[in-house]
Amino acid sequence: MKLRARVLCVVACVFLLTLPVLGQSAQVGADTNANASQKLKVEYVHYRPARWDTEHITEFESEHPNLGGLLYFYVTNTSPKPVSLRFWRYNNRDESYWLLNHFIAWHRLLDNNLDPGETTVLEVAAISRDFQSELPFMFEMVDDSWEPCVKFEGNLREDDVNVSFIHVYPDMKTIDVHVRKSGGPPIELTQVELPGLNVTNTEWRGQKLGREGQAIARLTLSEPIRPGFQLMTKINFKAGEIARTIYAHRRAFPDFFPIGTWGIDEHEQSFVSGDHVDTGVKGGSKNDAFFGGAAARFGLNAMVHTGEPVNVDMIRDLSGHPNVACWMLRDEPDWSVDPQVVLFCDTTVKAYDQTKPTFVNLCRNVKFFEYAAIADIAGHDHYCVTAPSSSKWPYTYGTRLEETAYYTSDLKYAAEPRPIWVWSQGNHDGWSERPARPVPTPEELSAQLVLNLGRGAKGILWFTYNIKMSVKYPETRESMRGWNRVMNLLRDDFLAAEPLQGPIDAPDKVDVAALVSWDKVILCVTNLDYEIDPKAYPFHPKSSVKIALQLPDWIEPKSALLVSGSGVASVPCAKREEKTELKLKKLVDGAIIVLANDPSLGSTLQKKYRTLRETENDAIPTSN
Asked: CATH no. for residue 75?
C-alpha cells in the first residue's frame, strides 16, 4: 500500500506539472504599481446565483437544491515581480474547508503563476447558503510566501450587465461579444478590450442601452489566436457619470453549429450524411476506417467520448485530427458522478490536447449549475414524449413539449458566455413509455426543435437518427431531414444570434422566441395549441398568425423570409409605428422566419436550398 501511494503521488505531481498555462499575458498599459500594499488587485467579481425553472418543472431527487451560484474572481498582478498563487480563502476559511465539506461543487484557478500585469480567473461553483445573493464576503488569495497577497470585501450581487456569448469566428481573428442588460439605469458602452491581444478594429451595434437591451461588439485582431487560448473580455461602460467595467471569459475555438446524432457507425454514415447530418459520437484511432477515410469522405465529425478514466492514448492519437469536433467528457454525469470527477476529466483532456473543445452532456436542470461551466460546451437531453425523464410528468408517456425549452434556457444561463448544444428528440429505437407510438410525430418533433432553437441552442444533436425507425416511421424521418435543410441554411445565423429581450405580440397559444445577430432577427414560432395524448399529440393549426415586435435599431428588414424544409418564401412584413408586423399564412407546428437587412438573402438561400436537395438520396437502408 505504501509503494502504491508513492507511485500515485509521483504520477499526480508529474500530471500537475504538465498542465497548460491558461492565464492572460500582460495587458498593454496595465497599471503594475497601483495598490502597492497588495500584490494583486481584484478587477471584478462576477456572481451568478443558481437559478432554474421551478414554476413549470419538478425534478425527481431535488431535495437538496443548490443555494449558491457561480463566482468568477478576475485578479491582476499589480506588483513588479511574478506572483505564485497557492490557495484562496473565503470568509476566513481556506478553500479546503469549502471543498471538503461540500459547500462548493468545484473550483478552478486558470493560472497560478502571474507575471507583472497578468490577469487570471478563479472559478468557484458554490452550492451552500454561504454564497447566497446579497451576503457580505471577504476574499483572499495566498501566494508562496504563505501570506495573503490580496484582500477584497464586498457583497454578492448579480450584475444587470453581462456578457451572454463570446462568439469566435472560423478565422480566429473576428470576435463578437454579446452584451445583455436586464435592469438598472441607462448605460453607454465605450470600449471592449481583450487583455493580451492586439485589437485593430471595433464596431458596435446598440452601444446605448436603456433599462433592458442588447448590444454586440465586433472586434478584429491583428492576427489569429491559437485554439484553446483563454479569451478574456473587458467591457467598459458609463452609467451617467459613473464608469464601470465587467469581465467575461471562455476558451477560444472556431465556433460551429453541428447537426448531429449519436450513431455514425459504418452502416449509418452514408444515410445520415445524405440527410445533412455532419456530427456524431465516435471514438477510435487516426488510422481506422472512420478517421482514416470515411470521416472525410462523408463529411462527418466526431464527438470523441474520452471515457472515465480518460483514455489519454486515444487523445494523443487523435489530437489535431480535422474530423474531431470535440472531446466528450461524459454523458449525464449529473445523475451519479461527482462534479469533481468531471472537472478532473476535463483537466486531464486539456493537459493532452488544446486543439478541440471539451463537451459535457447533462440532463437535470437542478444540477446544471454544478456541471455546465466545467467544459467548453455544455449540452442537455430533455425529451417530452415517449421517453424516460428526470422530471415529474402528468402521464407516463409524455408531458408538455415546452419543457425542453425551459431546460435549454436554464442550461444557457448556467453556461454563459460559452455555447450550448442540445440533444433534440429524434426517432430513437428503444423508447417504450408510449407503446402506441414509440417515436415522436413530425409535429411533436418539430415543436421541440423550434423551442430549443429559440432559446439559444448553438447546435442540434438528434437523439437519434435511426435507420430502422426511419423505415417504420418515414414521416418522422422526412420531418427531421426537412429541419436539417433549414439548419444547414441558417447554421451560421443561429450560431451568431442571441435571444432578444422584450415583449412580442402573438396570438394565444403561439410561442415566439426571437434571436438577434449583427444583421438579422430570427423568429422561432411554435404552435402550443395541442393536447397530450397516448397515441399522438393532436395539433390545431393556426391561420393568419399575426406577430409584432420592436426590433433593435440596427435591424431594418429588407427581407422577410419563411425558411422551411420545403423551401424559402417571402412573408408579408411592414413597419407600424415602432413595431414590425408580419403574418404567417398557416402555422401547423413550428416555423422559422428570418428578418434580414440584406435584400438579396432570399435568392441566396434559395440557391443553397437547391444545392442541398441535389445532394440528397431518398433511399433508406433496409436494416440497422
From this structure: 2.60.40
Sign of CA dihedral 438, 439, 442, 444: positive
Residue 551 lies in a domain: no
Same domain, yes or no, for 151 and 166?
no
SS (H, E, C) 141-166: EEECCCCEEEEEEEECCCCCEEEEEE
Number of domains into which the chain is organized: 2
Q: Which residues pair with 41 in a beta bridge?
A: 76
pLDDT band at 519 (very low <50, low <70, confident <90, very high): very high
Contact criterion met (CB below 8 Å) for 264 and 302: yes
Say which residue the cell 445524405 belongs to. Answer: 274
Q: Residue 31, SS3? A: coil
CA dist list (Å): 479 to 199, 382, 522: 44, 19, 20
pTM, full prediction: 0.94
Q: Are strands 212-221 and 199-205 parallel, antiparallel or unpaired?
A: antiparallel
Q: Which cell numbers hold the place of 430?
A: 428503444
Please name which of 556, 598, 609 lies closest in space to residue 578, comparing C-alpha atoms: 556
The reply to whether 23 and 128 lie within a common domain is: yes
Please tell me whether residues 143 and 216 are part of one structural domain: no
Residues 129 and 196 in one domain: no
Q: What is the pLDDT of residues 274-288, one digit of tens each?
A: 999 999 999 999 999
Instruction: Look at residues 193, 221, 251 and tell me which one is the last residue of a structural domain.
Output: 251
- 167 in the same domain as 116: no
Spatial CA neighbour of 521 closest among 530, 512, 508, 529: 512
The answer to whether residues 39 and 149 touch, using CB atoms and an 8 Å cutoff, is: yes
Q: Please tell me the distance from the alpha carbon of residue 61 to that of residue 65, in angstroms, as a whole number.
A: 9
| Boundary residue ending a domain (251, 271, 291) | 251
Classify residue 362: in a domain, yes or no: no
What's the pLDDT tens digit per position in 367-392? 999 999 999 999 999 999 999 999 99
| CB atoms closer than 10 angstroms to residue 147 | 9
* Buried-state track 65-84, b at ≥16 Cβ within 10 A, e below 16: ebbbbbbbbbbbbbbeeebe
CB 555 within 8 A of CB 564: no
d(CA 269, CA 323): 14
Check residue 623 and give its pLDDT: 57
